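Much of our argument rests on the idea that a fold can be written as discrete symbols. Part of our work consisted of pairing the sequence of a single chain with a tokenised description of its backbone. The amino acid sequence and the backbone structure tokens for this protein are reproduced below.
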Amino acid sequence: MSADPVVVVPYDDAWPSLYEEERARIERAIGPWAEGIEHVSSTAVPGLAAKPVIDIMVGVKSLDDSSILVERLVGIGYEYVPEFERVLPFRRYFRKMREGRRTHQIHLVERSNTEWWDRHLLFRDYLPRWAPSRATVPLQFRSPTPTRLPTRRSAAEPYFLPKDGWLPRWHAPALAIGWSVKYPSARKEMPDENQ
């Protein structure tokens, strides 16, 4: 599998609409199997610099339906990449490429995998509302100028290591103050310091 370059760019106001357009395509392709479709990761957080790849998490009832799901997602332009299942056997990964670069990627999991599902929604929903944690985001994710990094994980450690170290640090405080995708009332009661 060839890797495209890791490039971090300033937040793009078009990302939410790009997600919505793709969500509609995915829904038409696998709607009967989908129990949830969500925009996740950095492009889903307003104002956060990110790799310009729309991350989409799709929850299905069972991965036993993978063969039909793969066929239908390939039919709308995705490439199925099974190599990652050696590390994440509970996820099916798909990517959409244009001119040698990823534009979208799908993380297909069983909706009952609440640890995976909730953690991704927690990142998306907690970060934009809680300003103190945004101040701790590594600079390359808030950078006003594009940052190009190497294609290989080992060569791109300046991108991955701060992210790997930072992501677990916000997770525990978010849970400690009652922020949870399972308890929306806690989210409603939180002050929005960005307003």
DSSP finds six helices and seven strands in the chain. The mean pLDDT is 75. Helices lie at 15-30, 66-74, 114-126, 131-135, 157-176, 184-189.
